[in-house]
Predict the 3D structure of the following.
Amino acid sequence: MKKFIFVLKRFFLILKEGILLDKSLFFIKVLNILLNNIMIYIGLILPKVLMEMIRRESLTSILYILIAYFCINLIIIFIDYKLTPISTIKNEEMNSKIIDMFLNKSINMELRYFDQPETYDKYLLVFDQCCAIVQNTINNFIYIFSSLIQIFFITSILSWMNKKMLFLLFFISIFQVILNNKTSKKIYEYQKKMVHHNRQINYLYRLFHIPEFMRDIRVNTLKDFIFKKKYKTVDKILDDTKINSVQVTKISTMRAIINLAEDLFIIAYFAYNVLAKIIWYDDFIVGINSYKQLKNSITQLLSVYTEIYKNDLYIKDYLNFMNNNINIVKSGDIALGVDDIECIEFKSVSFTYMNSKNSALRNINLTIKKNQKIAIVGENGAGKTTIIKLLLRLYDPDEGNIYINNIDIRDYSINSLRNAITVLFQDYSIYAFSIRDNIALNKNLSDYDINEYLEKVGLLDKINNLPFKLDTPITSQLMENGVEFSGGERQRLAIARSYARKSNILILDEPTSNLDPYIESKLYDDLLKDENEATMIIISHRMTFTYKMSRIICMSKGEIIAEGTHEDLINKNEYYRKLYNLNFSKYSS
């Protein structure tokens, strides 16, 4: 009973949320149910009234009844004709609002929340069901309302029936609902497994339509390799589907047998009452139809609990996600302007990624002052990129603090913090939008400004030769007439986007990994020229530019092992000297 109370509390919580999203849609649904119930009641008693008029041989009365029935139906059909398009549009508008709420919540969650596979699977499941959760809750309430009205009207028609018989049939319906509950639970557990399997199989399918993977699969003849992984996942899907299908089919077969036995019994019971002259033939016809409708109403009323219970399995995960304030990135209220950053300081910062045994950062102490040009170098996994992720509050440190202008970065508005810093990550994103949108993103930039940034990265001539110039889509995934860019061209587009941010702090993570030496040299000349007063942090394996930097930070295994100028480190630090000489010999050759 206590469990049922919690289920109801969650049900009414979501119902309230749904009604507040669109009160008019709720009113339309209630009105539709009332009109439908009126028609059901009229449809049940109509045969009895007509048979009575036939017995009396009153043709005029029959015509009047049929005309009235036709007119009532016509009015309801007309109302439905007007309301259905409105209801459809409002349903889609409500779904859009629900998804907006969900996405706004997810964008404010810590990334480490999604690093947990089990949590991420639940997130995908709830995201897939978030609209259905609210819509089903409203519909379940409407079904309860409808069923109670039908039961009230139909029991008045069947008032002659033995009350013990009605209770017996009611308990049969309860037993059927229990079976429905078992089916719903089996299906829910099956869907949870399918979310995990589908995530794997969908990734494998995407490999065959994402351009860079399509190319790699062909060049390296990886089809058989990927198909083996696909077959392995498909086998798991088939095994789980078979187990679930057998379990659900057993329950469904039992329900079908009970339904058949009940139908035969009720027909025999009604026939006996006619032979015993308790009811007449017209009551037999009306009784059979009314009982079927009563059974449907009772089953629907009881099944609503099944649906509420089934929906509640998703509601719990939905509310856990929407009410999760532990994993929310908490924003401060101090505004940080794009020109305000004078000093960035890491004090004793340590951090470990979820599901990792090794620390990504250990006791990092680092100060970066305005206008400095900093290079962060080290082997893969040294923690270079993690420093930037913590500075942007994509993650928060496990230990220590990060300060900007002697104020903890958690005290700043998170949006103003991120707007004040321009970052180009190594795994940058190029969107299937136009070239203009990819450069400007959320900014209102003139064509002159965009062309200036494209000129800096050496793409202007190519883009001006395209039929739609700046309005050319990148790829044809969303729009027609899209173009494909090479890896180096995509990286240059991302760099042009960084220029467009016009921030006084620019962080570049492996900005030249796909660029040829000429473009790379030109880029660094532009970035590091004397008149460029922006504070700059460059993370790179290539070290041909480091002699131009005001400071170099050497990292290994999550720790800062050395820092200084190029001259200091090349003469005094073996680790840096080895890295630099390896780079120099590699790129000079």
User: Anything to note?
Assistant: The mean pLDDT is 83. Residues 197 and 402 are 40 Å apart (CA to CA). DSSP finds 18 helices and ten strands in the chain. The radius of gyration is 34 Å.
